[in-house]
Design goal:
In chain A, 52% of the residues lie in helices and 17% in strands. Chain A is built from 25 helices and 24 strands. In chain A, the strands form six sheets. In chain A, strands 12-24-23-22-13-20-21 form a seven-stranded mixed sheet, with helices on both faces. The two termini of chain A are 48 Å apart. Chain B has helices at 2-30, 36-45, 55-78, 94-105, 115-118, 121-151, 161-187, 214-223, 244-268, 272-298, 303-308, 320-333, 348-359, 370-389, 403-429, 440-455, 470-499, 516-547, and strands at residues 197-200, 206-209, 395-396, 399-400. The mean pLDDT of chain B is 94. Chain B is an all-alpha fold. Classes of the chains: A alpha+beta (690), B mainly alpha (548). At the A-B interface, helix 9, helix 10, helix 13, helix 23 and helix 25 of A face helix 14, helix 15, helix 16 and helix 18 of B. Chain B: The system is composed of three essential subunits: KdpA, KdpB and KdpC. Chain B: Its main location: membrane.
Chain lengths: 690, 548
């Protein structure tokens, strides 16, 4: 553990979601055995019944020992242990992460502004602390004074330092991160013990995990099925006694005698019928789902939020940074009045050499890429005077001796030149109409042409949105642009709808309107003015770089501050539900084969005709019952990797998903146990006494 | 061949009335204007027809109405000798009166008595027949309340029970019954108030043959899926069911309303295709069951049937094997329970089919109203499991199936199997199975059948067991009572819970509940749930018998 402590947290425990290390099973075994405590088992009614049955058969086996009784008893106990093992393995992954997070939390000392020094754990909401270079920030809060570079790798795993400064949207700091330079004053916003790191630890440990709504509903169904099977088996006893008495000549077997079905076999039948497979794996599935989010550096504040993500039907996405790259880029040089494109590109590049804005850089790069114009170092050009952009002139440029080049807003540049042409006006209007921004380039007394700046839609976004549409999710782009520009970008990106000239109030109103219609809404946000909308949305993902108000309002935080991750979150939410549904189907479908194994095993001695149901031609009543019990236990272990990884999910329509999962888990659930039980029977028939 | 024709024409006729009858039912339960008679009834009972009821009030109204009905019918039967037209019969003994009162109010119509030797004409007409009407109306009303829950947009109310009860009785059941009575009379069913006549039979013995208002009773017996016969032998009696074509009309009456209810569902939730999906589930199950039953009976194994050429024991010659088997299947698929042949004498597997039909939970198509709400519960459970498999909180016609909905739906499907299994086990554990005529697996079937029939409110008798003892009357009475009203309370609670929800709009990500895949899934879930629950018991009864 010491080795882990001095490495960045989340990155230090790379848990490959797909692979299950066999050692992990072994390491989790003690934890699994500890979970046999009935007070803990009670939380899982299905497995509690199995445990109670195991105790009962143990008593029977002690009182009346036989080979079958003892082997069944051992396998029933193993069934319970395997179920606990699934949960322990799932929790184990989180525990490793929690340990490193704790290490980052260490014994930090808080330096209050009034000079006192107190342990970080005693900080109250509203305290103001000073953090100098090299110190660890003692708690979550907002920078109220100063600017500093902060190493947040302990939380995000990202080693590049980030800037935190007072005011604005970059004021939030997280406890446990380290100030690398300068000095900041921080007002603490967390309550003691409720810091971000505390919540993260609670989350990944899986302890005291709240059950999510769908999980509760599924638990109810499983409990009902358990009761049904319990009833169906218990009420069988008087019927069995009656039948045995009627066929008085039928020999007693290990499964049935004058007192009815033997206790060992009755318990075996119950355990095989109740939905143990899903009952054993249900909690592991939930923990692993949260874990998958954490691995993608997303912290969900509740399991409920993760489930809601699967239900989302409207996705609000900010244009800038999510759909488009952060800034506009030069896309084309459009020369006018007989000027050659290369000439225009040269002038445009010259005028932009000192322009450090992303737009300016993109002009230089485009000129280089399209016309091979090497970038010239501004400092090395003699006689060049760069004219910076001002809000008054609305243009920038360069004076090279007598040569004056300017680029800027169309109106400003045309005014500077003093004359224009229809051709220029036409091009400028055309670019505006297409959602781009025209920059006019001119040299002293003539317009050379226009640079077409446009938003660049991130690669692959259109495909992503098509996927969303197939999943039944509507995507809405939110932008401050005017409707015309917004419409053009929306069409290019392939979103379903857009909200132009959006204010925070508009956003909130849109969310409420969608929710009125019964839709669940997901969004991302980082600014303080996003907070109301984040709180209103069903899934509000706050960026870790955002303000603490935003992080407080949302129900998830993305440590990577990558707004596109919303799409992955939705997929993880869906995968979680699908895994539960698929394993439930599998578990119930399994019962068919178990009936064909156990019913003839018990009753063929009484009514020989029932041997016709022994379609698997199992060796003997004992081997049939034992095979079913062993299969029932082993299938849990076999499915642990699937429970942890989640079933394969590809975005597609509901019908396609259902069809596929029914084939795999429904039909598979019917067939697999027939094969499994037969195989086990072939092996165990050689055990003497079976 | 005639057997096939019988079934095919029946299917076509029921299919033909699906839309018109469903649309008419929809108009009746959605309409708001009352006529003079109805306004009179509302004033008499003191009901404000405009007042909407929450699920709790609706449920309390159903329970209060039914409790009063049981009490009234019980007293009526006890004192029938003091009233008119008793034909000289005594007051009905306590345990039989209790059993019969519960039986008719719960739409079960289990008959622990023999009609022509126990009940006077007034008790038949004013006691039993009235319950035939209103118990059927209660079933439809509860189904409509559940549909309203699915169709509602954030409301707390489910309509008004008294209005539903009145409108369904007066506008649907009564007019159709008047028509059907005339048809039956044309077909030769008796309709008089005669006390009967003593006749000398061919062998020289004297036999008392009772007349009575049979045709009118017969109409509502079938239309309301009641099944309580005027005579002990029910629809096997030539006065109740004289010919093959009256047999056909009886089956048509039984099937028409249960199969039209899904149309009401489709109309009210605004998607007719949802109705088609539900009716498809019902049809697949029903046709499969009829085909199997007829198949088992026609291709009867066993020494005697093969010697005589057909499994004719216990079947009326005028109906023949296929029509009798069809009747047996249809009356158990619906909660009618009328019989025109002696099920106890069916082949082992043929006799198992009526039992399996009832074990399905009376959903294919089930009793009037009760069949639809039972199937909607099964669809809800299917939606839940299938919905998880598509990665969303499961929703059915726009309503989310959450923890509360699952709790109610799960309890619903627990109730009936619990009653059947516990009852059967109790009979064997206490030795009351001894009144069964047979020992061994067949005796087991006789006991299992009785509780299956009572718990599912079917009322069909396997026969071959004496059940008019105090223990059986009490136990089966409780089974009928709990098997009817616990599910009704759960259904109404579910309706209330659904009504409060705001509907979720449909999208590509929504599980489609109107496609063949879903229909197949509901069929599968229904069969698997039943198989898993009852297979052990069936294995020791009909399956052991059939495989020996």
């Amino acid at each position: 553990m010491t080795m882990l402590a001095d490495r960045p947290a989340v990155q230090s425990t790379p848990v490959k979601s797909g692979m299950l290390d066999p050692h992990q099973l072994w390491r989790s075994l003690p934890g699994a055995v500890r979970k046999l405590d009935p007070r803990l088992m009670w939380r899982n009614p299905v497995m509690f019944i199995v445990e109670a049955g195991s105790v009962f058969t143990t008593v029977l086996a002690v009182a009346d020992p036989s080979v079958l009784a003892w082997i069944v008893t051992v396998w029933l106990w193993l069934t319970v242990v395997f179920a606990n093992l699934a949960e322990a393995v799932a929790e184990g992954r989180g525990k490793a992460q929690a340990a490193t997070l704790r290490a980052a939390k260490q014994d930090t000392v808080a330096h209050l502004r009034d000079g006192r020094e107190i342990p970080a754990t005693e900080l109250q909401q509203g305290d103001v602390v000073v953090v100098e270079a090299g110190q660890v920030i003692p708690g979550d809060g907002d920078v109220v004074e100063g600017i500093a570079s902060v190493d947040e790798s302990a939380i995000t795993g990202e080693s590049a330092p980030v800037i935190r400064e007072s005011g604005g949207d970059r004021s939030a700091v997280t406890g446990g991160t380290r100030v690398l330079s300068d000095r900041i004053v921080v007002r603490i916003t967390q309550k003691p013990g409720e810091s971000f790191v505390d919540r993260m630890i609670a989350l990944v440990e899986g302890a005291n995990r709240q059950k999510t709504p769908n999980e509760i509903a599924l638990n109810i169904l499983l409990a009902a099925l358990t009761i049904i099977f319990l009833l169906s088996v218990v009420t069988l006893q008087p019927l069995a006694i009656f039948s045995k008495a009627y066929q008085a000549a039928a020999p007693d077997t290990i499964a049935i005698d004058a007192h009815g079905v033997t206790g060992i076999v009755l318990v075996s039948l119950i355990v095989c019928l109740i939905p143990t497979t899903i009952g054993a794996l249900l909690s592991a599935i939930g923990i692993a789902g949260m874990d998958r989010l954490v691995q993608r550096n997303v912290l969900a504040m509740s399991g409920r939020a993760v489930e809601a993500a699967g239900d989302v039907s409207t996705l609000l996405l900010d244009k800038t940074g999510t759909i488009t790259l952060g800034n506009r880029q030069a896309a084309e040089f459009v020369p006018v009045d007989g000027v050659s494109a290369a000439e225009l590109a040269d002038a445009a590049q010259l005028s932009s050499l000192a322009d450090e804005t992303p737009e300016g850089r993109s002009i230089v790069v485009l000129a280089k890429n399209e016309f091979g114009l090497r970038e010239r170092e501004p400092g090395l050009m003699t006689g060049a005077t760069f004219v910076p952009f001002t809000a008054q002139t609305r243009m920038s440029g360069v004076d090279l001796g007598t040569r004056q080049i300017r680029k800027g807003a169309a109106a400003a540049v045309i005014k500077w030149v003093g004359r224009s042409s229809d051709e220029v006006a036409e091009i400028v209007d055309g670019i505006s109409a297409s959602g781009g921004t025209p920059l006019v380039v001119a040299e002293k007394d003539r317009v050379l042409g226009v640079i077409h700046l446009k938003d660049v839609v991130k690669e692959g976004m259109r495909a992503r949105f098509d996927e969303m549409r197939r999943m039944g999710i509507r995507t809405v782009m939110i932008t401050g642009d005017n409707p015309r520009t917004a419409a053009a970008i929306a069409a290019e990106a392939g979103v379903d709808d857009f909200l132009a000239e959006a204010t925070p109030e508009d956003k909130l109103a849109l969310i409420k309107k969608e929710q009125e219609g019964g839709r669940l809404v997901a969004m991302t946000g980082d600014g303080t003015n996003d907070a109301p909308a984040l709180a209103q949305a069903d899934v509000g993902v706050a960026m870790n770089t955002g303000t603490s108000a935003a992080k407080e309002a949302g129900n998830m935080v993305d440590l990577d501050s990558d707004p596109t991750k919303l799409i992955e979150i939705v997929e993880i939410g869906k995968q979680l539900l699908i895994t539960r549904g698929a394993l439930t189907t599998f578990s119930i479908a399994n019962d068919i084969a178990k009936y064909f194994a156990i019913i003839p095993a018990i009753f063929a001695a009484v009514y020989p005709g029932l041997d016709a149901l022994n379609v698997m031609r199992l060796h003997s009543p004992g081997s049939a019952i034992l095979s079913a019990v062993i299969f029932n236990a082993l299938v849990i272990v076999a499915l642990i990797p699937l429970a942890l990884r989640g079933v394969r999910y590809r975005p597609s329509s509901a019908s396609a998903l259902l069809r596929r999962n029914l084939w795999v888990y429904g039909l598979g659930g019917v067939i697999v146990p027939f094969l499994g039980i037969k195989l086990i029977d072939l092996l165990i028939q050689f055990i003497p006494g079976i | 061949m005639a057997g096939w024709l019988f079934v095919i024409t029946l299917v076509l006729a029921v299919a033909a009335v699906y839309r018109p009858l469903g649309d008419y039912l929809h108009r009746v339960v959605s309409g708001r204007r009352s006529n003079v008679v109805e306004r009179g009834i509302y004033r008499l009972v003191g009901v404000d027809p405009e007042a909407e009821q929450s699920w709790g009030v609706y449920a309390r109204s159903v329970l209060a109405f039914s409790a009063v009905s049981i009490l009234f019918l019980y007293l009526f039967l006890r004192v029938q000798d003091k009233l008119w037209l008793s034909l000289g019969f005594d007051g009905v003994p306590t345990h039989i009166a209790w059993n019969t009162a519960v039986s008719f109010v719960t739409n079960t119509n289990w008959q622990a008595y023999s009609g022509e030797s126990t009940m006077g004409h007034l008790a038949q007409m004013a006691g039993l027949a009235v319950q035939n009407f209103v118990s059927a109306a209660v079933g439809i009303a509860v189904a409509v309340a559940l549909i309203r829950g699915f169709a509602a947009r954030k409301t707390k109310t489910l309509g008004n029970f008294w209005v539903d009860l009145t409108r369904i009785t007066l506008r649907v059941l009564l007019p159709i019954c008047v028509l059907a009575t005339l048809v039956f009379m044309v077909g030769g069913v008796v309709q008089n108030l005669s006390g009967g006549a003593d006749v000398t039979t061919l062998t020289g013995a004297t036999q008392h043959i009772t007349g009575g208002p049979v045709a009118s009773q017969e109409a509502i017996k079938e239309l309301g899926t009641n099944g309580g016969g005027f005579y002990n032998t029910n629809s096997a009696h030539p006065f109740e069911n004289p010919t093959t074509w009256t047999n056909w009309v009886q089956l048509f009456l039984i099937l028409c309303i249960p199969f039209a209810m899904p149309r009401v569902f489709g109309r009210m939730v605004g998607q007719n295709r949802q109705g088609y999906a539900i009716v498809a589930v019902m049809s697949v199950l029903a046709l499969a069951s009829i085909a199997l039953t007829v198949g088992f009976e026609v291709h009867a194994g066993g020494t005697v049937p093969q010697a005589v050429g057909a499994a004719m024991e216990g079947k009326e010659v005028r109906f023949g094997v296929p029509d009798s088997a069809t009747f047996g299947a249809v009356t158990t698929l619906t909660s009618t329970g009328a019989v025109n042949s002696f099920l106890d004498s069916y082949t082992s597997f043929g006799g198992m089919m009526p039992m399996v039909n009832m074990m399905l939970g009376e959903v294919a198509p089930g009793g009037v109203g009760a069949g639809l709400y039972g199937l909607l519960i099964l669809a809800t459970i299917t939606v839940f499991v299938a919905g998880l498999m598509v990665g969303r909180t499961p929703e059915y016609v726009g309503k989310k199936i959450g923890a509360r909905e699952m709790k109610l739906a799960s309890l619903y499907f627990l109730v009936t199997p619990a009653i059947v299994l516990i009852g059967t086990a109790a009979a064997f554990a206490t030795g009351h199975n001894a009144t069964a005529l047979n020992a061994g697996p067949h005796g087991l079937s006789e006991v299992l059948y009785a509780f299956t029939s009572a718990g599912n409110n079917n009322g069909s008798a396997f026969a071959g067991i004496t059940v008019n003892t105090p223990w059986w009357d009490t136990a089966l009475g409780l089974a009928m009572l709990l098997g009817r009203f616990l599910p009704i309370i759960l259904v109404l609670a579910l309706a209330g819970s659904l009504a409060r929800q705001r509907p979720v709009p449909e999208s590509e990500g929504t599980l489609p509940t109107h496609q063949p895949l879903f229909v197949g899934l509901v069929v599968g879930v229904t069969i698997v749930l039943v198989a898993l629950t009852f297979l052990p018991a069936l294995a020791l009864g009909p399956i052991a018998e059939g495989l020996s």
